[in-house]
Amino acid sequence: MNPLADALVAPLSGRADAVLIRPDGSTLSGDALYRLSGQIANVLVGAGLQPGDRVAIQAEKSVEALALYLACLRAGALFLPLNTAYTTAELDYFLGDAEPRVAICDPASEAALGPMARDKGIELLTLDGAGGGTLAEGAATAPDEFATVPREPDDLAAILYTSGTTGRSKGAMLSQDNLLSNTEALVETWRFTSDDVLLHALPIFHAHGLFVAVNVLLRVGGRMIFLPKFDLETVIARLPEATAMMGVPTFYTRLLSDARFDRDLTSHMRLFISGSAPLLAETHQAFEARTGHRILERYGMTETTMSTSNPYDGERRAGTVGFPLPRVEARITDAETGAVLEQGEVGILEVRGPNVFKGYWRMPEKTAEEFRADGFFITGDIARIDAEGYVTIVGRAKDLVISGGYNVYPKEVESEIDALDGVLESAVIGVPHPDFGEAVVAAVVREGGSQIVAEGIQTALQERLAKYKLPKLVYFVEELPRNTMGKVQKNILRDEYQGVFNK
Ligand code: MLC
Ligand code: AMP
Question: Model's pTM, two decimal places?
Fold first, then answer.
């Protein structure tokens, strides 16, 4: 038994029809993908991989990168995907913490990562966006037969890093059953079948594009139009071939900004799903007015994969994230005391169910802090559950910015800014942005006599942080607003800068 490989990968064997449609329209059959996963699994084992080892990958989205995920499932390895935007400095931490046996990077990063990998005893292979590189070369000559390694439902299948409000990023450990149970719940809730063709424009290094999109479509034996990224022209051109689309709100606001995106273009579509960041009620309404479709909004987290969803048949209510998924429980508690609140009250959203992760990699204390004794996971999102059971996310207890669906923890950016010569201190906030939903803005206090300018800060940060974490604007202030306890009042800064991107 290997629950995920049995459910997602094994059915590809012998499947002659297309499972992946590439940007140029060429296709890859299920069987070809299956055989490729076997070849890659053989390369990994040849590199010394044992079941339970981690395989890290930072590479452009490609059919081969997806096959690597399937190969890891078959080989009993823990798949560890990394955002392509991470810098070498960020990777140093992830690779040091996760201690993967094998890491795969773009050939362009090989020179920078090679010495790091050697120091850490990691076997480094390469893969580019066109499917070239040493991993693919090895796979081309490797046997395609591979005996899938047995796994138990509680065995780990993946580690996904998520930044922390304090300190370093944490690796969320997801088990076979976490992922498979969630896939089953989503298939049931969203009615996916083998007739579905998903327009897949999300990255596959985060939960949304990988565990929601890919797992669901593999589970039902559907197809995916596998695009390297969200590009408005390509998405509009390929939409007629799709039945369903999943995206972050930015995908939908970008589509709405184009007059070609209308009722005619979308009339054949079965379903549009949104998540990873709040979908403004006004976007939901504008989308319906333009296309006649009501976007189905759902809510999740790396640690829990999906927890709630609006209904397929019932009312998809704008501004809400719907009901807990089958077998998932949700409750609202008091932020200070942890007491369960009355229905309708606003507090911290907690969830429990087979979807909830096994804890943070090698961080038992951090794990313990985020769970209640009765097994509920404290999401850090502020929410309300109404009399009908609809969950509405009203805010975040965690100091977190979500920009275009990517999470940015202000503390991480502040630490980097504060470390620069000429900076006394800084405060990083998220402010409304028409494209990204929220954008990162920094308020910086210079050290006495310092002449540091915004450009200097941006340039210095580029070396240290992924691009999406960089402040889109840097303001210099005399001092940061603080309350009587000395805590920076970010709400005052947010009020002050809230209109800067809407002028
Ligand atoms: C790119 N940039 C961003 C950004 N994406 N800045 C802030 N926020 C982002 N999300 C930077 C680029 O590096 C570039 O910098 C500049 O902004 C303009 O880029 P762009 O060309 O407009 O961006 P694009 O490449 O089109 O990417 C935007 C995007 C992408 C929205 C398509 O960010 C994306 O695919 N987001 C999806 C994220 C996602 O999958 N999240 C799921 C997490 S899982 P410069 O300096 O070069 O101009 C999760 C759980 C759950 O949250 O519930 O699903
Ligand atoms: P991540 O750590 O990338 O998995 O991001 C998880 C966070 O994204 C959640 O804790 C929420 O704050 C946010 N999120 C995901 N989906 C939604 C949604 N539909 N509405 C509001 N916030 C969301």
Answer: 0.97
Going from the C-alpha of 162 to that of each of 17, 177, 409, 412, the distances in angstroms are 36, 20, 10, 12
Ligand 2 mean position, distance from CA 437 (Å): 12
355 lines ligand 2 (CB under 6 A): no
Question: Helix or strand or coil: residue 144?
Answer: coil
pLDDT of residue 195: 98
* Residue carrying structure tokens 């081969």: 64
What angle is formed at CA 345 by the lines to CA 301 and CA 483, rounded to 5 degrees?
80
Task: Name the DSSP letter for residue 5.
Answer: I
Residue whose CA lies nearest to ligand 2 atom number 20: 278
Q: What is the CA radius of gyration of the chain?
A: 23
Contact 71, 38 (CB under 8 A): yes
The whole-angstrom separation of Cα 136 and Cα 143 is 13
pLDDT reported for residue 163: 79
117-146 burial: b if 16+ Cβ within 10 Å, else e: beeeebbbbbbbbebebebbebbeebebeb
Q: Give residue-wise pLDDT tens across range 451-484.
A: 999 999 999 999 999 999 999 999 999 999 999 9
Joined tokens for residue 496 = 């002050």
